Amino acid sequence: MSLLDIKSLETFYGASQALFGVSLDVGEGEVVALMGRNGMGKTTTINSILGLVRPRSGAIDFAGRKVAGLRPYRIARLGVGLVPEGRRCFPNLTVHENLIAAARGGEWTLSRVIDLFPRLGERRDQYANTLSGGEQQMLAIGRALMTNPRLLILDEATEGLAPVIRQDIWAAIRTLKAAGQSILVVDKTLSELLPVADRCFVLEKGATVFQGAPGELTAELQDRYLGV
Ligand code: ATP
């Protein structure tokens, strides 16, 4: 059974339809890439999973529960951890306070998060709003891990970061995968994303148009669905 199983999802913003039939699943311990050009529905799919927008039709099963229509806090408590686009942390809390505020019991503890991102240990008493963009991203991932999510969702986690920091984030994602963490990841850097992904889903105009192993996403398909 999949950890996350989405079938034929249709989501609207007011009268405007954004998703026209998204199907997607993530198995336990799998890293799944959600891909597509700008505006194709990736963030709307994530917002639908989290209950931030309410799908009009279709099904979302998470850990064996039907979650479409549940409140966001209830879905989060079932074990969905989001690292949102734009790396939101509490700006006026320190690194340590940000991490502790998110903590829910489980394997991910403060010391394990700091092992993953040693910089967060070095910056422990610094306010989040004084961190670099890359450090804030590490903190956003650390916060999501502190909730001990069964599924971690990363929305554009490397966007806008310096290349050397991107490498740190990708290394962390590979470490998480090796530790068996289930991850749904949206990212535009195919050269890093494809090697770490077990499977890929591609959205085009709000619908799933491809699903398969990274190796099946040929240059022609990449050009058709992901080219600029
Ligand atoms: P990006 O990579 O640019 O973030 P995306 O694939 O995540 O793109 P979405 O943000 O899900 O795409 O957008 C899907 C469609 O829904 C787009 O046509 C977009 O204009 C529309 N949309 C997104 N958010 C809203 C909103 N709050 N209100 C109305 N329409 C929206």
Question: How would you characterize this protein structure?
Answer:
- This protein is α/β, with parallel strands linked by helices.
- It has one domain (4-225): P-loop containing nucleotide triphosphate hydrolases (Rossmann fold), CATH 3.40.50.300.
- The chain is built from nine helices and ten strands.
- The protein has helices at residues 42-50, 72-77, 95-102, 110-116, 118-122, 133-146, 163-178, 190-196, 219-226, and strands spanning 4-13, 16-26, 31-35, 57-62, 65-66, 80-83, 151-155, 182-186, 199-204, 207-212.
- The strands form two sheets. It has a six-stranded mixed sheet with strand order 6-7-8-3-9-10, with helices on both faces.
- Strand 7 (151-155), helix 7 and strand 8 form a beta-alpha-beta unit.
- The radius of gyration is 17 Å and the shape is globular.
- The mean pLDDT is 94.
- The structure holds adenosine-5'-triphosphate.
- Residues 13, 16, 18, 36, 38-44 line the site of adenosine-5'-triphosphate.
